[in-house]
Amino acid sequence: MWLRLKKFFVEYKYAIIAWVLILLFSLLGIHYGLDEHVIAGVVVLIGILGQAFAALIAWVGFIPLVGPIIAKVLALPFIWLLNGVGYLVSLVAIKRGYAKDVVNYRIITVTLIVGITIGYIIGKVI
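RESULT FIELD:
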């Protein structure tokens, strides 16, 4: 058991440090009356650099039985929403005569989705 616990802390050390920093900065920022936008910006920056958000989804996935389902539900809707909005905007743009711009927009959308996926995979590997 201790070996598994040690492996967990070694594997997620940056995410654990990031969550501690997020918690400390949030509490201190609220206590000292920092602007909410500054607090949110620093929290997002720490979370992205420390891979805290990807680790949170992975930690939720560790919960037996329901964890993987919750992790999938948290991960998929963003991609679905991004792609769905892209299709709706494409329909409106085609009706207004912007067919060439739609092609460029869809290429950018697909590139963004692929980039998010590759970023998640690289984040898990590192």
